[in-house]
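User: Hello! I'm new to structural biology and keep hearing that structure can be predicted from sequence alone. Could you demonstrate with KIB1-4 beta-propeller domain-containing protein? Please show me the input and the output so I can see what each looks like.

Assistant: Of course. The first part below is the input, the amino acid sequence of KIB1-4 beta-propeller domain-containing protein. The second part is the output, the predicted structure written as tokens.
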Amino acid sequence: MSRLLFGLSKLSSRNDVLIHKSVRLFSTSPYLTLGTRVKEVLPGGCKTGDVLLFDPTKEEIVTVPEKTIPKELMDEEMMGASHGWGFFCDRRDRSVRISDIFNPLASKSNPVMITLPRLTALPTGQTEEVCNVAMSSSSPLGEEDCVVAIKFSGNQLSLCRPGCDLEWTNILTPINCLENSNLMYSKRDRRFYLPSPGGNYLFSYDLHFKTDDFPELHELFYRDHPELDQSEWELLSSCSRTEYLVESPSGDERFLVKWYALGFFSSMLKGIYYKTKRLMVFREEETTEGKIMCYTEDIGDMCIFLANNEAFCIPASSCLGLKPNSIYFMGRGLGIYDLTTGEAHHYKAPKGAPSVLTTPYWLPPFSI
């Protein structure tokens, strides 16, 4: 799980009361999950408490008060998020649950809970460390074609149809090729994609993929790169790099993002702390030579959200306060990267924020 220690500086001199935001009638901002704060234990083992979210457009905490927290989730670890749904795993029996607990517009007293089969590891795999999760539809409720996919660190990918499958379909990904790749689902192609390290290839899996099938291999060809001097390229070569494939809501645009972060030892964190140095975006374009990934510093009105959840992008004009042509990131710092200037703004800690985040995932805007 990603862990982030917020800085000690504060955004303002507001009092210690959390800022209670009233969400707009038809849509919310994108939010980052900060966790829950238990207030009361109810008969039967359930609890009530506050759901804490971070609004990047205002750099404020949004509190959803008096939310019922099912007892099943109290001892479970959040392992990812997709389309605003949280994925949780029981530490004891490795069963998986999907819930709308972090949806500020969902029922406070009766959050949706969908139970999936227990996870099982391949002989050469493991199910303790998760890269990310992805889902083929916006909701796991009543969708016949909804497939949930979990990419684990290492060489295991697991697929399941909520409400249909009694066990997971465990797939062995190409060894030493996709160990820490980030999974995404393409609505346009109806396939799950995993970019290879370096972003030179994509491996894809359709919704009916079987254990013994082979993924399709797609080679990516690049055109243009940023004009950097030798020292800047040398700095980037010493950075940790992660690739993300992301698709626009309509499916008519696709981007590959390369995220460069430099590691430093932190005595406060007692480990390595990563600071974002650069984010490069390549847009997929149709040419007479086929599909080419072209470097760009202009994605127009779009803004991209990266974390350990399934990456997504939305038009900035759809939510007041979002900055177009930007990337909101969490994992190697928390902030926003301006593609026009190439500069990153790191968010400071708002009043009432947990000192350590263990479940920080971006949630897309919610609508009634």
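User: So the tokens describe the shape?

Assistant: Right, they're a compact way of writing down the 3D structure. Reading them back into a model, for example: The helical segments are 71-74, 230-237.
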